[in-house]
Write a structure and sequence with these properties.
The protein is α+β, with helices and mostly antiparallel strands. It is 23% helix and 21% strand. Strands 2-1-11-10-7-8 form a six-stranded antiparallel sheet. The longest helix has 10 residues.
């Protein structure tokens, strides 16, 4: 079983514990096309943590196919199986940072993992909304976040757009003035809340401490 040490500071525990007990092919079978948000919670106020806990509750997000069997999935982990699983997964665009680079960037940090997905009870728009209030798909309850702060749009590319928020949105240090393509490894600031985008394969590697140093 992989070591839990790399992920001991990460939440939610149920998801993280499942990830480190699952083979890479099994994880990709469940989450292969999913992008994740890794929210920096090292100095998070209680309001931000309570909001993240609320939207990560079971049933609040549509589970990817096979997610219910994630812990019990048994798949051979030889190189051929891993390569086959990886080629069957469609991910968004190019990767800004490799898993090794992501691992170095996030070393000893506390992160909260959220699937980038619409809530099953939010059909107001086909875009994934980010904001301070509970009617958003991604609720970031923080004083620097506007009620309706930004949107992600999933198409052939993953696009991020600021929604005229008070404190703005930036990607890799550049203020967002228009819809911008974002990729795995990008660092996004919603107000003063830092989030890193991470694809499923890189996330599994980071959580399992198998990214090259």
């Amino acid at each position: 079983m992989p070591s839990l040490s790399a992920a001991r500071l990460w939440k939610p525990r149920r998801f993280v514990d499942a990830a480190v007990r699952t083979s890479l092919p099994g994880f990709l079978a469940a989450y292969g096309s999913r992008m994740f948000l890794l929210v920096d919670v090292r100095h998070a106020p209680a309001s931000l943590m309570s909001g993240l806990d609320a939207i990560s509750d079971l049933g609040s997000l549509p589970p990817p196919a096979g997610a219910d069997d994630l812990v019990s999935t048994v798949v051979a982990e030889d190189e051929a199986d891993v390569a086959t699983a990886a080629t069957e997964v469609i991910n968004y665009g190019a990767i800004r940072r490799t898993a090794a680079q992501i691992a170095r960037r996030l070393a000893n940090q506390e992160r909260f993992v959220l699937p980038l997905a619409k809530r099953v009870d939010n059909a107001v728009t086909n875009k994934i909304t980010v904001g301070r209030t509970a009617n958003n798909d991604i609720m970031l309850k923080h004083g620097s976040i506007s009620k309706f702060h930004a949107t992600f749009e999933e198409a052939d590319r993953l696009l991020l757009r600021d929604a005229d928020s008070k404190n703005g949105t930036s990607v890799n240090g550049e203020s967002l003035a228009r819809a911008t393509e974002v990729q795995s490894g990008d660092i996004v600031l919603f107000g003063s809340v830092e989030v890193m985008l991470c694809n499923a394969e890189s996330l599994w590697q980071v959580l399992n401490e198998r990214a090259a140093a």
